[in-house]
Structure formats: C-alpha cells, structure tokens
Design goal:
By secondary structure, the chain is of the alpha+beta class. Helices cover about 20% and strands about 10% of the residues. The protein has one domain (about 1-70). The longest helix is centred in the middle third of the chain and has 10 residues, at about 25-35.
Length: about 80
C-alpha cells in the first residue's frame, strides 16, 4: 500500500511528468519544488477550462474540472 496520499488532478502536467509518473515520491518532490511551469492537459495552457491558473495547490477537488489522478492514491476521507 502506498503511504503517499494527496489530491492530484490527472490533467495537471509539468516538465518531468512522464519521468515521475511511476513513483509517487518523485511526483510529490517535483510538485513541492514548483520550479517548472504547470499546464492543464485539457487546455494545453497554464490555466484550466474554468480560466483559473493551474498549479499543484490550485488544482484540487474544489474545482469543477478536477479529476483524481491514478498516479497517487486518493486521500482517506
């Protein structure tokens, strides 16, 4: 069982996304660094379909376009 649990939208992309995708710890480390631009897969822009900016902290369950990524386990409710 994976001990790392956090919200991650499946549409959030960053430069090392494909390299990090197999390791939840690498994903979390990349997201915490925030030294790369983020983009939304739905818009291919730094904003989502709701016209708000995308980032690991901004792309959570409160947004209508959010879809939980399978790369990390969803948080325990």
């Amino acid at each position: 069982m994976n001990p790392l649990r956090f919200d991650l939208c499946k549409n959030l992309r960053w430069k090392s996304h494909s390299r990090d995708s197999g390791d939840p710890a690498a994903i979390l480390e990349s997201l915490q660094r925030q030294q790369v631009p983020f983009a939304c897969l739905q818009t291919c822009q730094p904003w989502g379909p709701d016209d708000d900016l995308v980032s690991p902290g901004a792309c959570g369950k409160e947004r209508t376009c959010f879809k939980q990524s399978r790369l990390v386990e969803p948080p325990i409710a």
